UniProtKB/TrEMBL annotation:
The keyword Amino-acid biosynthesis does not apply. This is CBS domain protein. SMART domains: CBS. InterPro entries: CBS_dom, CBS_dom_sf, Diverse_CBS-Domain. Keywords: CBS domain. Residues 8-68, 75-132 form the CBS domain. Signal peptide: none annotated.
Length: 141
Protein backbone atom coordinates (compact mmCIF):
# COMPACT_ATOMS: atom_id res chain seq x y z
CA UNK A 1 0.00 0.00 0.00
CA UNK A 2 1.45 3.34 -1.09
CA UNK A 3 0.66 6.34 1.10
CA UNK A 4 1.05 10.10 0.76
CA UNK A 5 4.31 10.10 2.71
CA UNK A 6 5.80 7.67 0.16
CA UNK A 7 5.24 9.92 -2.83
CA UNK A 8 5.65 13.44 -1.38
CA UNK A 9 8.79 15.49 -1.57
CA UNK A 10 10.14 16.75 1.74
CA UNK A 11 11.33 20.20 2.60
CA UNK A 12 8.07 22.08 2.16
CA UNK A 13 8.50 25.61 3.46
CA UNK A 14 5.89 27.91 4.99
CA UNK A 15 5.47 31.56 4.11
CA UNK A 16 3.94 33.70 6.88
CA UNK A 17 0.86 35.64 5.75
CA UNK A 18 2.60 38.96 6.51
CA UNK A 19 5.57 38.28 4.17
CA UNK A 20 5.66 40.10 0.85
CA UNK A 21 5.46 38.43 -2.52
CA UNK A 22 9.02 39.40 -3.45
CA UNK A 23 10.18 37.45 -0.38
CA UNK A 24 7.92 34.56 -1.39
CA UNK A 25 9.54 34.51 -4.84
CA UNK A 26 12.98 34.44 -3.20
CA UNK A 27 11.95 31.48 -1.01
CA UNK A 28 10.58 29.65 -4.04
CA UNK A 29 13.88 30.17 -5.84
CA UNK A 30 15.96 29.10 -2.81
CA UNK A 31 13.92 25.92 -2.30
CA UNK A 32 13.30 25.23 -5.99
CA UNK A 33 9.53 25.04 -5.51
CA UNK A 34 6.54 26.63 -7.21
CA UNK A 35 4.24 26.82 -4.20
CA UNK A 36 4.37 27.72 -0.53
CA UNK A 37 1.71 27.03 2.10
CA UNK A 38 0.71 30.30 3.80
CA UNK A 39 0.66 30.28 7.59
CA UNK A 40 -1.59 32.47 9.71
CA UNK A 41 -0.03 35.12 11.92
CA UNK A 42 3.51 34.01 11.11
CA UNK A 43 3.04 30.75 12.98
CA UNK A 44 3.40 27.36 11.38
CA UNK A 45 0.37 25.84 13.01
CA UNK A 46 -2.51 26.91 10.76
CA UNK A 47 -2.57 27.00 6.99
CA UNK A 48 -4.71 29.72 5.43
CA UNK A 49 -3.85 29.06 1.80
CA UNK A 50 -1.21 28.18 -0.74
CA UNK A 51 0.73 30.72 -2.76
CA UNK A 52 1.96 29.68 -6.20
CA UNK A 53 4.42 31.27 -8.58
CA UNK A 54 1.47 31.70 -10.95
CA UNK A 55 -0.46 33.62 -8.27
CA UNK A 56 2.42 36.09 -7.97
CA UNK A 57 2.55 36.63 -11.72
CA UNK A 58 -1.19 36.73 -12.49
CA UNK A 59 -2.61 38.33 -9.36
CA UNK A 60 0.18 40.78 -8.62
CA UNK A 61 2.66 41.54 -11.39
CA UNK A 62 0.21 41.35 -14.31
CA UNK A 63 -2.20 43.57 -12.38
CA UNK A 64 0.47 46.26 -11.99
CA UNK A 65 0.80 45.71 -8.25
CA UNK A 66 4.12 45.94 -6.42
CA UNK A 67 5.31 42.53 -5.10
CA UNK A 68 7.26 44.30 -2.37
CA UNK A 69 4.01 45.70 -0.99
CA UNK A 70 1.52 42.83 -1.53
CA UNK A 71 1.61 40.07 1.09
CA UNK A 72 1.08 36.34 0.82
CA UNK A 73 -2.00 36.78 3.00
CA UNK A 74 -3.43 39.26 0.52
CA UNK A 75 -3.58 36.46 -2.06
CA UNK A 76 -4.79 33.70 0.27
CA UNK A 77 -8.25 32.64 -0.81
CA UNK A 78 -10.57 29.69 -0.55
CA UNK A 79 -10.31 26.76 1.81
CA UNK A 80 -6.81 25.29 2.03
CA UNK A 81 -6.59 21.60 1.22
CA UNK A 82 -4.13 19.12 2.72
CA UNK A 83 -3.76 15.38 3.22
CA UNK A 84 -2.59 13.25 6.12
CA UNK A 85 0.78 11.54 5.61
CA UNK A 86 -0.86 8.14 6.10
CA UNK A 87 -3.56 8.62 3.46
CA UNK A 88 -3.53 6.08 0.65
CA UNK A 89 -2.66 7.25 -2.87
CA UNK A 90 -6.28 6.87 -3.95
CA UNK A 91 -7.28 9.43 -1.29
CA UNK A 92 -4.53 11.78 -2.50
CA UNK A 93 -5.76 11.54 -6.09
CA UNK A 94 -9.38 11.99 -5.02
CA UNK A 95 -8.57 15.11 -2.98
CA UNK A 96 -6.59 16.65 -5.84
CA UNK A 97 -9.20 15.70 -8.45
CA UNK A 98 -12.23 16.83 -6.45
CA UNK A 99 -10.71 20.24 -5.83
CA UNK A 100 -8.84 20.47 -9.14
CA UNK A 101 -5.52 21.23 -7.47
CA UNK A 102 -1.99 20.47 -8.62
CA UNK A 103 -0.15 20.67 -5.30
CA UNK A 104 -1.18 19.19 -1.98
CA UNK A 105 0.52 19.76 1.40
CA UNK A 106 1.16 16.64 3.48
CA UNK A 107 0.61 16.86 7.23
CA UNK A 108 1.64 14.50 10.03
CA UNK A 109 0.67 15.14 13.65
CA UNK A 110 -0.63 18.57 12.58
CA UNK A 111 2.78 19.55 11.15
CA UNK A 112 3.66 20.20 7.53
CA UNK A 113 6.15 17.54 6.43
CA UNK A 114 6.01 17.71 2.64
CA UNK A 115 4.16 18.48 -0.54
CA UNK A 116 2.79 16.38 -3.38
CA UNK A 117 3.05 17.94 -6.83
CA UNK A 118 2.38 16.83 -10.37
CA UNK A 119 6.02 15.80 -10.67
CA UNK A 120 5.69 13.55 -7.62
CA UNK A 121 2.65 11.87 -9.13
CA UNK A 122 4.48 11.34 -12.41
CA UNK A 123 7.40 9.68 -10.61
CA UNK A 124 5.34 7.33 -8.46
CA UNK A 125 2.12 6.44 -10.24
CA UNK A 126 1.16 4.37 -13.25
CA UNK A 127 0.43 5.97 -16.59
CA UNK A 128 -3.26 5.10 -16.19
CA UNK A 129 -3.43 6.74 -12.75
CA UNK A 130 -1.73 9.89 -14.05
CA UNK A 131 -3.98 10.05 -17.11
CA UNK A 132 -7.11 9.72 -14.96
CA UNK A 133 -5.86 12.39 -12.58
CA UNK A 134 -4.95 14.80 -15.38
CA UNK A 135 -8.28 14.34 -17.12
CA UNK A 136 -10.20 15.26 -13.98
CA UNK A 137 -7.93 18.10 -12.84
CA UNK A 138 -7.51 19.77 -16.23
CA UNK A 139 -10.93 19.06 -17.74
CA UNK A 140 -13.07 22.13 -18.32
CA UNK A 141 -16.18 22.27 -16.19
Amino acid sequence: MTIAKDIMHTGATWIPAHETLDRAAQLMREHNVGALPISANGGQDRMIGILTDRDIVIDCVAMGRDPSKVTAGDLAQGTPRWIDAGAEVEEVLEEMQNHRIRRLPVVENKKLIGMISEADLAQHLSDDQIAGWAEKVYAHS
